Every structure is written in structure tokens, then in C-alpha cells.
Amino acid sequence: MNNINLPEALQLMQYVGDAIGTLRDPQELFRTVTDKLRLIFSFDSAVIITIDRDRHHVSVFFEMLRFELPEHLRHQKRSIVGTWLERHLDDRTVTIATIARDIPSFGEENAPLLWTLHELGMRQIVLSPLRSGGQVIGFLCFVSKAEESWNESDKSLLAGVSSSIAIAVSNALAYEELRQREAETAMQLAINNALFTIKDRGAMLLTVCEQISRLIPCAFLGIRVVGEDGRFRIFDNFMREPGSSFAPFSPLEHLDMSPDDPIARESVEVLSRPGVYSGERFDDLCNEFRLVGMVRDRFGISSTIIVRLWELPGSRAGLIISGIGVALGEEELEMVRLIVPQLALALQNYMAFDEIDRLRRRVEGERTYLVEEIRQTHNFEEIVGNSAPLADVLRRVSLVAPTDATVLIEGETGTGKELIARAIHNLSPRKERVLVKVNCAALPAALIESELFGHEKGSFTGATERRIGKFELADGGSIFLDEIGELPLELQAKMLRVLQERELERIGGRQLIPVDVRVIAATNRDLEKEVSAGRFREDLYFRLNAFPLSLPPLRERRDDIPMLAMHFARKFAREFGKPLRSIRERDMRELASRDWKGNIRELSHSIEQAVIVSEGEMLDLSTVPSLRSEKGSLSEHHTLMTMEEFEEEMRSMERKLILDALDRAGGRVSGEGGAAELLRINAKTLYSRIDKLGIRKRYGAG
Fold first, then answer.
1. pLDDT at residue 406 in the model
2. How many CB atoms within 10 Å of residue 77?
3. Which pLDDT does position 699 carry in this prediction?
4. Cβ neighbour number for residue 147 with a 10 Å cutoff
5. Cβ atoms within 10 Å, residue 290
6. In the predicted model, what is the mean pLDDT of residues 523-551?
7. The pTM is what?
8. In this predicted model, what pLDDT tens digit does every residue of 656-674 receive, in sequence order?
9. What is the DSSP string of 138-190?
10. Which among 407, 405, 224 has a CA at the least distance from the CA of 304?
11. H/E element holding 440?
12. 3-state secondary structure (DSSP) of residue 204
């Protein structure tokens, strides 16, 4: 040890005091002080460790090492119960320890750090207690390769320096505790806000993950809710890859396993084992539950916290937080417990709302099909026209309706494919049973299989209840598959099996369910071309095409246009409470000469707009934008607007007309002189139109 004279000692004390008073960053402070101490004392590496309040664990507060510790010894927090350090927790003086002398009394197993230091060539440890408030809060430790001799003056000087360092450490710990509490409060507020403002459960839990990860070094978060039958009602998982944010994640899919697999089912009991699992305790948990062990081996999980959210009759839930390469402990558990009450309440609310929504959808679906079932129309009264092409179609409908043959209806958009399907059903022996309608183009690809064939409870994440598919619902009746050409290729094989074998299997089910269903399909695509392009199965096409029906476009049945125009004029006049007006002969000729790209639907929209805007004795078609833009004969070359453009222009004109009427009426809708009277339309109908068009009130009450 260097000979230290009094001026040097005083200089050192003053330097340390000045550094503590001027340097705010603890790491910078102790790095500066350590560099100064190295000029006075001989050592190779320096470490400041702190002791927690229960005096069971120590944490590395600051380190300046000249060697590399093995990964398993680099934990920032470790237990000191039963270790060589526990004997020094009440020290008041500096202790000089020779490593070789201390190791035999403990052995490698009980003192792995001392053993490793000795293997790295370190021979001496100096412990200088850091005292605050009458007790040791930590130690300033020197580690040396050589066994230096320390006299009493050296120890006294180090003890004096340690007193000043103890003040700085105490202040830093107090500041860190305050900062930690503020961070915990901020986390609670952010999570509370997410729980009660974000409606989507997945988005809400992603926010919870991000907030928790600000304080806890976690890489995985799982939510488990188990029902009375022991099956998962919620099995949500989120994981964060290094350098990225949390994202939904399915460990079962990665392990090629279903929630009903015995290995997954047994993991339900993990919820009954709340606590902190790391080290050997985590290994024991992995040995007891095979799924936990498989997740550890596949994804590198090193520690886990399991927290019970609730334990109720028929339902229990838990939160699982795991880390990769870190040892989660009791401090992290206490942080997680701060959010448990709010998280449990939010999840219970989500589940309650999901159940209410499920029941509402079921009731609405049942009502739709009951209304369809009690409908009294069993003929062609909804199909207007007497042209030869239409008569030929209706003749074929009459022939095929009494049979159970599969029918494929082909035709352009707006030609009335659904009306024909309904006519086939109403003229069949199945007319007393339900006609179930499915628009294959309107269903997301991920849901269409479940919609058509149903699923079992627990068959996939979110499948909390058994769902009856549309084919089962149509059992004994008919099913209308509109836009069949949009059916994903991977589902076409399953559809073919249902048509051939008249049986299906729900998603996640093992039982074959027989179904007696008459299939009516429709498409506006050329399925033969789709087959050639590889987008539609040839065998399914042949099965559907058992009895083809091709609907003519409106331009091929021009003789029906006058009858259709008057039909729609009567319909909308009755609907809007307006008088029935005739159509001028020249306007009728113009209607009959158009190409009608949108077919009957486009004609219907045009007449609807004319009924709304007409004020005289005759129906005013001059204000219909599509008619104004397309005059002349069929041979005239022009650019046709799309149906979307046509409908948008209709809405724009209708909105302008209503706004003009409101301006003239001073904002008054009903009553004498109101906009409804000016437009000769029922006031309730006008209110409905105003609401549909999103017209906002900008006048005083009237």
C-alpha cells in the first residue's frame, strides 16, 4: 500500500466531498471517485453493492471491473443468505479478506462468486461498509490480484471516504426509489387509461405489455381465462422480439398444438401456482408442466411470474409474465400486482360485453330467418317483366324448383339473382323451411369457414362458444351462396365434400354431421374462365353447374323496362309518401334505349331519385345525372359512369335538393311551409333522408 501522509488524506477527503456536491449523475460520480481512489489505494477492480431492506439480497450499484464475469454470475441482484457476505452485514470497520482463506469454509457450491474470482487470479477482497441511519446499506469493495498490506491508517482513511460515499449512495437510492414510484404511478395511469378507453381487447393488452415492459424486463405476456369445463375461454399471448415491440403470438401454433391437446390442457393448473419462478424453481415448474418446458426450450424463457387475476365459481384467470435472459423477482411481482385489480375488472367487462353481443347477434340472426320462414310469397310476384328472355328463365325455374338439384345462377351485377334464388326456394318442397343467404364476397377469408361450417368451443383462440354454421342452420331448407366465385380456393375442397357427401365437420370437431340442404349458388364471374385460370376447382364447378341458369342483362330485355320503371315509380312513391306520377313517352323511350350497366339496380336508383325530385304532374327524369349524361341511341359511343359514381352523384344531388329546400324553409322540416311540404314528401321520410345523408342542423329550431 502507498504511504499516505496527512495532506494527501485531507486532499482526498476534500476531493470526494467536492465531487459529491457537484456531480449529479451517480455513475459519473463514482467513476470519478474510483479513479481518484486508485491513486491512493492499490486495487484492480472496484464495486459498490447495496443491501435491500430485508437484508436478504444485494444488488450491484456501481462496478469498474478489469475482468469479465461469466454470464450466470452477472445478475444484478443475488441472495446473500448463507453466504460469506452475510457475516459482515453489521461491520463497522474495514475488512481485509484473502479469497483462498475464505473459500474452503464454503466450497464452490455455496460461494461461486469467490471461487470464480479466485479462478480469475484475484486474491484479496476489501470490504468497507457504507453506513447510513445507523446501519449498513452496502459496501465499497476492492478486488486485487496481489495481497496488499493495509495498516490502520489506510483502513481509517478508507472508512472516512466510505462515509462520504455512503451519503451519496443513500441519496442516489432515495432518488431512485422516488423515480421508481413515479414510474409505477405513470404506468398505472397509462394502463388504467388503456383498460377503459381502448375497446379492442387485443389492442388494449398490447398497450398493457408496452407499459409493463417500461419497468419490467419482460419479453412475454399471457392472459388465461378458464371456464367451468376446464377449457380456455381466453388464451391471449404477446411476445416481443429483440429490438421490436410486442405483437400477438401463439405458442401453441409454433409448437403445432391445439388448445385441446392434453399437454395444453394440463397447463391450466399453472394458474393455481402464483408466484415468482426463476433458477431451479423455474426448472421445477418446467418439469411439472410439459408445455412450460417446451416454451422454455423453444423460445429461451428463463423466468416467469404468475399472478392470479380472479378465482370464482366456474371461472378463474391469471396473468403470466416471462423474461428471456433475466431473473424476474419479488420486486417485479409487486409492480405487477399494482395493475391486477384494474386488469381483472377490464377483462370481466370485455367478457360480459362479448357475451351480450353474442346473444344479440344470435337473436338478430334468428329473427332474420324467422321472418324469411314465415314469408307468404310463393310465386314470381317480385319478378317484374314479360319479355321472352325472362319468360325462358322463369320456365326453367319452374322446372328445376320442385327437385333437389343444385342450381348455379350466372348473371351480371343487378340482374336479380337473389330474387330467382328465392323463387326457386318458394316453389320447392322445402318452402316451409328456412332459406339461408350467405354472401361469400362479404365474409373475411379468416371467418368464412367458421360461418359456413361452424366451430367447436376452444377450436381456436377466441372460440369461446360452439357456433352453428350456415349449412347446419339451413338443414331441411335451402342455402343461397351468393358470389360463390369469391370462395377461397382452400375452402372449395371442403365445400365439394359437403355437396357430395351431404355431411360436414365443424372447425375443431371430430364428428361428421349430416346435413340435408338444397344448394343454390350465384356468381357474376365466368366460372369456366376462373377454372382455366386455376382460381376455381373444376370438380366443384361441375358439381355446382348441375342445373345452370343464365340471367339476361337488362339491355337484352328492353321490353321489360317500361314495366319495371312504373313498378319502381309506384314503389318509391308509396315509400316516400309522394303522389304517383306518370313517365313521359319520350323519357320512357330514353330509358328503354340505355345500356344500363348496373342493370335493374341502376334503373331502380334512377327512378328513386326522379321520384324524390319531381314536383309536377309527370316524373321529372331530367335531373337524373346518369340520364343527362347518356342521351342518344345505343350505337352512340360514350363513356359509361360506374355504379359507384352514379350512386355518389345521386346522393350529391339529393343532398343539394334537400339543403335548397331547407334554405327556402328557413331550416324548418315539418309543418306548414316546411321543407317536407316544399318537396311534397312525408316529413318522417325527409327526417330519415336528412339523417342518412349526414346533414347537420345549422338553423334555429323550427
1. 93
2. 14
3. 47
4. 13
5. 14
6. 91
7. 0.40
8. 888 888 888 888 888 888 8
9. EEEEEEESS-----HHHHHHHHHHHHHHHHHHHHHHHHHHHHHHHHHHHHHHH
10. 224
11. none
12. helix
Task: Tell me the pLDDT tens digit for each residue of 396-412.
Answer: 999 999 999 999 999 99
Per the CB < 8 A criterion, the answer to whether 415 and 553 are in contact is yes
Look-up of cell digits 377490464: 346
**Sheet of strand 57-64, all strands in order from the earlier edge strand to the far edge:** 77-79, 57-64, 45-51, 135-144, 124-132, 95-98
Residue 280 CB coordination number (10 Å)? 8
Inter-axis angle of helices 6-22 and 26-40, to 10 degrees? 170
Question: What's the rounded Cα separation, in Å, for the pair 378 and 485?
Answer: 28
Question: Is residue 86 a contact partner of residue 93, using CB atoms and an 8 Å limit?
Answer: no
List the grid coordinates of 464: 369461446
* DSSP for 223-291, written as a single string: EEEEETTS-EEEEEEEEE-TTS-EEE--HHHHTT--TTSHHHHHGGGGGG--EEEETHHHHHHHHH-HH
- The yes-or-no verdict on residue 701 having pLDDT over 60 is no
Range among 2-11, 62-71, 660-669 with highest mean pLDDT value: 660-669
- Residue 222 CA to residue 227 CA, distance in Å, equals 16
Query: Cell match 377466441: residue?
Result: 462
Instruction: Determine the pLDDT at residue 662.
Output: 86
Alpha helices in 23-94 (DSSP H): 26-40
Per DSSP, helices labelled H in 374-484 are 388-400, 417-426, 445-453, 470-473
- The residue whose grid cell reads 397509462 is 190
DSSP-based three-state secondary structure for 80: coil
Q: Does residue 552 carry a pLDDT above 90?
A: yes
One DSSP character per residue, 580-596 reads --B--HHHHHHHHHS--
Identify whether the C-beta of residue 269 lies closer than 8 Å to the C-beta of residue 289: yes
Q: What is d(CA 626, CA 645) in angstroms, rounded to the nearest whole number?
A: 9
The answer on pLDDT for 530 being more than 50 is yes
The pLDDT tens digits for 334-382 are 888 888 888 888 888 888 887 787 666 656 555 555 554 444 333 455 6
553 DSSP assignment? P
C-alpha dihedral, 520 to 524 to 530 to 532, nearest 10°:
100
The residues near 318 (Cβ < 8 Å, ≥ 6 apart) are 223, 224, 270, 271, 274, 306, 307, 308, 309
Judge whether 420 and 397 are in contact, CB under 8 Å: yes
Residue 72 has pLDDT above 70, yes or no: no
Cell of 429: 318442397
**pLDDT-based confidence at 308, cuts 50/70/90?**
very high
Rounded CA separation 667/697 (Å): 8
Cα–Cα distance, 573 to 590 (Å, whole number): 21
Q: How do residues 422-438 score in pLDDT, each as one tens digit? A: 999 999 999 888 888 88
Cell, residue 632: 342518344
Give the three-class secondary structure for 396.
Answer: helix
Bridge partners of 124, per DSSP, are 98, 144
Could you report the per-residue pLDDT of 598-652, keeping only the tens digit for each? 888 889 988 998 898 887 788 888 766 656 555 443 334 345 667 776 777 787 7
The number of C-alpha atoms within 13 Å of 124 and in the hemisphere containing its C-beta is: 14
Q: Is the distance from CB of 333 to CB of 371 less than 8 angstroms?
A: no
Are the C-beta atoms of residues 309 and 317 closer than 8 Å to each other?
yes
Give the cell for residue 506: 365443424
If 0-12 CB within 10 Å is exposed, 13-18 middle and 19+ buried, where does residue 647 land?
middle
CB contact at 8 A, 121 and 145: yes
Closest CA to 213 of 326, 302, 310: 326
| DSSP summary character for residue 557 | -
Rounded to 10°, the helix 152-197/26-40 angle is 170
